[in-house]
From TrEMBL:
Compositional bias annotation for Polar residues: 578-591
Region named Disordered: 551-591
Segments of skewed composition (Low complexity): 551-560
Topology with respect to the bilayer: Multi-pass membrane protein
A GO molecular-function descriptor: G protein-coupled peptide receptor activity
Domain G-protein coupled receptors family 1 profile: 270-522
Keyword match Cell membrane: yes
Keyword Ubl conjugation appears in the UniProt entry: no
Name of the protein in its database record: G-protein coupled receptors family 1 profile domain-containing protein
Species name: Pocillopora damicornis (Cauliflower coral)
GO BP annotations listed: adenylate cyclase-activating G protein-coupled receptor signaling pathway; hormone-mediated signaling pathway
């Protein structure tokens, strides 16, 4: 081959390579818009800009795209003195040298998204004085240097990532988180509060608040006035902010409530006695007043049970209580609400029953018979249960407070206000309906004082009256407190502690105290019942005595009635007390 030809070929190839190397397009397109000159450039190195753009200080907006710039050198844009927007997306930038943006005194927006930024050498003492927005999204390995947060005019930094849950986060100056975790509590998370790192949120007039502890990063941003908006995402919020529920009145409440360890068990025993004795004694079972009273005793028993379980679980620390509060409250609140409704309705039925007995004593057909009473009691319970179901189907809630009572005249929870007002008004109306009945009853008793039958019924009516009155008082006092609390401004003058005692602890104690005195007000004052109880006690003592040692004197005392009343069948020893019971009660009713 001709050596010259070879040489020529080599030369040609070399020149071709050279051509290829420089033919890579470095160009700018210029657009004159209303906001000034916009240049969109594709370049190989930043230095080329000065050769392509001849009047850099006219450029308002500069985009550099599709360029593999790895480094932004110092003073790269020094001559672009009027630049407002600088966009450097998707350029594989790794390093920004100190002073890279020096001279850009009017720059407001700086976009660096989609690069592989690792290092930003900072000397920002006098740099970027007008910068408002900085976009760093898509630089997953970049750790935001503190000096960037110090830029005076900077309002937003986009795309900051410091961990997975809070990836691509926007830091916004003086932002306030208005929703999220505390949607229903009117709680805003403010930058100025986050700065403290550890603070209480919630209604400061309430006992229940939340303690917020923010992570170091969040506190760091907040210290410079930036709020990470990614806190609006639950995963990020949960990761960065620890929320601990606090109950500032827990201990003092429980101290006062400890009186329930005395009241509730006694009330349970007394009411259970009324129920058991009434159900097991035939004469009492047949007595409509006693049946209704034992229905009330049942609701009182349940209220005491509610109270006892409540105070027992409240012995736990508040945070532990919170863990199972939802389920606990659904159960306890259900018991309480259905019992309260039964109690109110039974008061009314008892009143009507006494009213008929006294005022219409000459018309024995006008009575609440056992059958009617039974149906009424059944209806009462159906009504109680069906209303108590409402909070379980999202009409108000049971776990709105730590007493699990759905009566809270506050409008924060859907329907809780309406349900509270509804129940209270209904209770008030039912109790006030009973008042005219009693007035009529006592007038009748006064008029016909001579007649023995009416007098006795009148005494019963007075006792039932006491029962209903105590129910009314113990029902109305908490309601009045609630209304005072609603309509006056005691909530502002009172400490959360005293308010919780007034609106939570006191009603609970009053309700259970009512359950305690209800059996004492009527059942235990009724002679029939006392007699029946005495017989029951005798019976129990007798059995006990017999099982331990069958003394001759006891068996002698037993034998008399046993023989005389043993009219065949069964074990005579077992039947005796039963028969004795019914006989003595029968004789009692004849008096
Ligand atoms: C450079 O860009 C121009 C217009 O943008 C185009 O016509 C030309 O083909 C490009 N040259 C190379 C080598 O890509
Ligand atoms: C800025 O402009 C001056 C002349 O006006 C020039 O000498 C200098 O190289 C330019 N600097 C850059 C970084 O383009
Ligand atoms: C800078 O960018 C923003 C948003 O893209 C735009 O509204 C504004 O007009 C731009 N300013 C200039 C001077 O180009
Ligand atoms: C940068 O690249 C991403 C995909 O990698 C693309 O969606 C985005 O539009 C690019 N940004 C610009 C300004 O070209
Ligand atoms: C930052 O730059 C200024 C001049 O612009 C200089 O005086 C100062 O020493 C620099 N600071 C650091 C930490 O480099
Ligand atoms: C980051 O968030 C912005 C909106 O703030 C969004 O436009 C962008 O696509 C996100 N980038 C990534 C990588 O998720
Ligand atoms: C942010 O809040 C601080 C203090 O609350 C205030 O001094 C500052 O001016 C606010 N900044 C903006 C941009 O609103």
């Amino acid at each position: 081959m001709d050596p010259w030809l070879v040489l020529a070929m080599i030369f040609f190839q070399a020149s071709f390579l050279c051509e290829a190397a420089t033919s890579r397009n470095s160009s700018c397109t210029k657009i004159y818009g209303e906001s000034g000159l916009h240049a969109r450039c594709t370049i190989e190195s930043v230095e080329e800009l000065s050769t392509i753009l001849h009047n850099p200080n006219d450029v308002k907006s500069l985009s550099i795209v599709s360029s593999d710039l790895e480094t932004i050198p110092e003073g790269a844009f020094r001559n672009f003195t009027s630049l407002v927007n600088l966009s450097l997306p998707n350029n594989s930038i790794r390093t920004i040298k100190g002073g890279a943006f020096s001279g850009l005194n009017h720059l407001q927006r700086l976009e660096l998204s989609g690069n592989q930024l690792i290092e930003w050498e900072g000397n920002f003492t006098n740099s970027l004085p007008s910068l408002i927005l900085l976009d760093l999204s898509g630089n997953s390995k970049f750790v935001l240097p503190t000096f960037l947060l110090k830029l005076r005019m900077l309002k937003e930094i986009k795309g900051v990532t410091w961990n997975d849950p809070c990836a691509n986060c926007s830091l916004v100056k003086n932002h306030t988180l208005k929703e999220g975790e505390f949607k229903n509590n009117g709680v805003n998370i403010e930058t100025s509060e986050l700065r403290k790192g550890d603070y209480l949120v919630g209604n400061m007039g309430h006992c229940r608040v939340n303690r917020l502890e923010a992570s170091q990063e969040v506190v760091g941003y907040a210290n410079h006035g930036f709020f990470p908006r990614c806190l609006e995402i639950k995963a990020c919020f949960d990761n960065e902010i620890r929320v601990t529920p606090l109950h500032r009145c827990w201990d003092i409440d429980n101290k006062i409530l400890s009186i329930e360890f005395l009241i509730a068990p006694i009330a349970m025993i007394l009411n259970l006695t009324v129920i058991v004795v009434t159900l097991t004694t035939r004469v009492l079972r047949r007595n409509v007043t006693m049946c209704l009273t034992s229905n009330m005793a049942l609701s009182d028993f349940l209220v005491s049970l509610y109270t006892l379980i409540l105070v027992c679980t409240r012995l736990k620390p508040y945070t532990e209580f919170m863990l199972f509060m939802k389920n606990l409250c659904n159960a306890l609140g259900f018991i309480w609400l259905s019992s309260a409704i039964v109690s109110i309705k039974t008061s009314l039925i008892l009143t009507v029953e006494r009213y008929l007995a006294v005022v219409y004593c000459m018309q024995p057909s006008l009575r609440i018979t056992r059958k009617i009473a039974f149906i009424l009691v059944l209806i009462t319970w159906c009504l109680g249960v069906s209303i108590a179901v409402l909070p379980l189907v999202n009409i108000s809630v049971y776990d709105g407070n730590t007493f699990c009572i759905p009566i809270r005249p506050i409008k924060d929870i859907p329907h809780s206000y309406e349900l509270s007002i509804g129940l209270s008004l209904w209770g008030i109306v039912l109790y006030f309906i009973t008042i005219p009945f009693y007035i009529k009853v006592f007038k009748t008793v006064k008029k016909t004082e001579k007649k023995a039958g009416i007098k006795r019924d009148g005494t019963l009516a007075r006792r039932i009256g006491a029962l209903v009155l105590s129910n009314m008082i113990f029902f109305l006092v908490p309601i009045v407190i609630a209304f005072l609390w609603l309509t006056t401004n005691i909530q502002e003058v009172m400490s959360p502690q005293s308010r919780e005692i007034l609106t939570g602890v006191l009603p609970t104690i009053l309700f259970s105290f009512n359950s305690l005195i209800n059996p004492l007000l009527y059942a235990f004052r009724a002679e029939k019942f006392r007699k029946a109880i005495k017989i029951k006690i005798d019976y129990i003592c007798l059995r006990k005595g017999r099982s331990t040692s069958l003394t001759s004197s006891l068996s002698g005392r037993l034998r008399g009635p046993t023989v005389s009343s043993n009219n065949g069948g069964g074990s005579p020893g077992r039947q005796t007390p039963e028969l004795r019971t019914s006989r003595s009660v029968l004789s009692l009713t004849k008096i």
